[in-house]
Design a protein that fits this description.
By secondary structure, the protein is α/β, with parallel strands linked by helices. It has one domain: Vaccinia Virus protein VP39 (Rossmann fold, 3-Layer(aba) Sandwich). Strands 2, 3, 4, 5, 10, 14, 15 and 16 form an eight-stranded mixed sheet that branches. Strands 1, 6, 7, 8 and 9 form a five-stranded antiparallel sheet that branches. Strands 12-11-13 form a three-stranded antiparallel sheet.
């Protein structure tokens, strides 16, 4: 049992069951023992990998999209470039390499990184030193008043969720509890809730996921974009609506029990992009999409970029490059499972990678 698991067990024994959202917040971000605050979880030696680590094309095309959006908005200077959860800084390194010939773009950038992990902050500070990054625990501490270019790739999926289960007498929240032997498990709250916004026609046993944390962040992004202009690109693995239990745990690139070793496994859930869009639009922002990651990257020219990268390379290298791109865009891989949402100010140009008719109503 991990040290965090033992502390959670004692807390549950003393205080009783806790909401899943609180458990997730502690397991993932507790300062001394949370999953993201104590390690570099990426790559073959870690627990999972992300699009920027799979293919350099991802970061290069995202960078090109942000640079084009900056040009479309009159090349404001300075402009605040923000990444939420930058990982190893790979996305930004690829983005900066791809945009180094965009006149004055790099000079205009004021780089802000929202990162909770001391381990990853140290790596980001080293790899992105040329851009003098400023670090934040939360987006709210990034200064306002300037146009914003923001990227959040696989960030929303690790924010805490609440789960509710439909029962005969209403909705009961799913809680985390400890049994007499200290084993963690799920229980339902003793009292049912009336949640008319979830509907009344869902069958007993239906699980619905809500995330106030995600909605609050989408509101903050929408508010800032509506006020100062710019573009936010939100990329994550998605679900349609709130229905369905999507909580998962991963360790060593394999599925794991989400309650077995809190602090030692990656916990995530699929993102309801409709909820993010509603939250951003409520702040006056314009929202495009979501669209599939594959469609987004195809429109930005990933096939042409792959052809240029592979030209003249040894066959094994060319095959590896093609395999990475295929993983990003193939509908059977990440192409449709991952979705992209764009947030911009009403009246500003259509974001790169999107079509005018994809403006959300």
């Amino acid at each position: 049992m991990t040290g965090l698991a033992e502390r959670l067990r004692r807390s549950l024994a003393f205080e009783g069951p806790m909401p899943l959202s609180r458990f997730l917040a502690l397991a993932m971000a507790e300062r001394s023992a949370g999953y993201y605050t104590t390690r570099d979880p990426l790559g073959a030696a870690g627990d999972f990998t992300t699009a920027p680590e799979i293919s350099q094309c991802f970061g290069e095309l995202v960078g090109a999209a942000l640079a084009q959006a900056w040009l479309d908005r009159g090349a404001p200077a300075p402009v605040r470039l923000v990444e939420l959860g930058p990982g190893r800084g790979t996305l930004l390194l690829d983005a900066f390499r791809a945009t180094q010939r965009v006149a004055d773009f790099h000079r205009a950038i004021e780089l802000h990184l929202v990162e909770a992990s001391p381990v990853l902050r140290a790596l980001q500070a080293e790899r992105l030193a040329a851009f003098a990054p400023r670090f934040h625990d939360r987006l709210e501490t990034v200064p306002e008043g300037r146009p914003l270019l923001l990227i959040a790739n696989e960030f929303f999926d690790v924010l805490p969720i609440r789960q509710f289960v439909r029962t005969a007498d209403g909705w009961r929240e799913r809680l985390v509890a400890a049994d007499e032997h200290g084993r963690l498990g799920f229980v339902l709250a003793p009292h049912a809730l009336s949640l008319p916004e979830l509907g009344t026609d869902l069958r007993e046993g239906t699980v619905v996921e809500l995330s106030p944390a995600r909605a609050a962040l989408a509101c903050e992004i929408g508010r800032r974009i509506a006020a100062a202009g710019g573009l936010a690109l939100l990329v994550d693995y998605a679900k349609v609506g709130a229905v369905g239990d999507s909580l998962q745990a991963v360790r060593g690139h394999r599925r794991a029990d989400p309650l077995e070793e809190p602090g030692n496994v990656d916990l995530s859930s699929r993102v309801d992009f409709d909820a993010l869009a509603r939250a951003a639009r409520a702040q006056g922002a314009a929202v495009f999409g979501p669209i599939g990651q594959g469609a987004f990257l195809e429109r930005l020219g990933i096939r042409a970029r792959l052809a240029r990268l592979a030209a003249g390379r040894p066959e094994p290298v060319a095959r590896a490059l093609a395999a990475g791109v295929r993983r990003l865009v193939d509908p059977e891989e990440m192409g449709t499972l991952f979705r992209v949402l764009a947030v911009t100010r009403s009246g500003e140009p259509v974001p790169p990678g999107f079509e005018p008719q994809e403006l959300a109503a």
